[in-house]
């Protein structure tokens, strides 16, 4: 039973990591990125901030065109 709880916990942690996105804190930045080595972040003049997807959507709303292909 304890092993099952541990397994669920690890799965939840894994999901949380999948939702991690990266933001440039510069005033021109309006997108969030899937990876912190995206070409859209090369010109970022400030620190790159790691956050989760929901927080990023609340701040910037748009997904990076390089990271997210439709
Ligand atoms: Zn990107």
Structure, explained:
This is Lipoprotein. With 70 residues, the protein is an alpha+beta fold. The chain has one domain. The protein has helices at residues 2-18, 53-59, and strands at residues 20-24, 31-33, 48-52, 62-63. A hairpin with a 6-residue loop joins strand 1 and strand 2. It starts with a helix and ends in a 7-residue tail after the last strand. The structure holds zinc ion. Zinc ion is lined by residues 33, 38, 40, 64, 66-67.
Helices and strands in order:
Elements: H1 2-18, E1 20-24, E2 31-33, E3 48-52, H2 53-59, E4 62-63
Parallel strand pairs: 2-4
Antiparallel strand pairs: 1-2, 1-3
The structure holds zinc ion (ZN).
Residues 33, 38, 40, 64, 66-67 line the site of zinc ion.
Organism: Lacibacter cauensis
Protein name: Lipoprotein
Helix and strand element order = HEEEHE
Beta-strand level of the residues, as a percent range? 15-25%
Question: What is the total domain count?
Answer: 1
How many alpha or pi helices?
2
What assembly state would you assign to the polypeptide chains in this entry?
single chain
Apparent shape = elongated
Uncertain parts: none
What brief labels describe this structure?
single chain; 70 residues; alpha+beta; 2 helices; elongated; binds zinc ion; Lipoprotein
Structure at a glance:
This is Lipoprotein. The chain has helices at 2-18, 53-59; strands at residues 20-24, 31-33, 48-52, 62-63.
